[in-house]
Amino acid sequence: MENPKTPPSLSAKIADAIRTAIVDGRLLVGDRLPSESELADNHGVSRATVREALKRLAAQSLIRTERGAFGGAFINHLSYAEARAQQVTTSTLLLGMNAISFQVACEARYALERSCTSLAAERRTDALLATMRSEIDSQSTRDLSDEAFCASDVAFHRALVDCAGNEVLSYHLAGSVEAMQPLMNMITFTARSRAEIIDLHRAIVSGLERRDVASVDRALATLEAYTITLGQTVLKARATR
To answer: Where is the HTH gntR-type domain (predicted)?
Structure first.
């Protein structure tokens, strides 16, 4: 990995130029990139440098390569599922490396999730409601491990976001639910009341089933306040040890 304090490498500059052309619409899905030789000549670099740039773009799922007489590097169709995974990874690294405070993470995470409650109540499906109930059943298992409870907690809130039926919202909320939620769970899992969280989860599902936006929002607001207070208590206790 390159040091962010050093100038970008030639391969990074080439990759950035191609990425910018994709974002600007000068390169479209399915367009074929110039050959390695042409790219090398255009940028005044070796073919090895071009290959490294193409590897960077392929790692981000921005291009695909095909072999054969009509092969080469082509602009890829980037799915929301692929972008979502990258969003989660980036958000996790960003939060971890920048020491975001517990309260800031909680505020952002619940503000983002509550932004989808109106659509979620309107569009929720029986299948997603069943998924959320299934997670509540799992969370209620007496001998469930802390790790499994945390994973179920994330899955429950992911389903809540998916109830909105909006891929763009799901993408943007992926970082808050699938990156911030596990980090918050790591701090509070030993002290929190599973019963209290499960009761709030049940209230959320009940509100969605009735399409009652206000009750879903109230349950999320209560969960936010509980999580922030619990996190502050846990962190204060650690600091005095």
So the answer is: 8-78
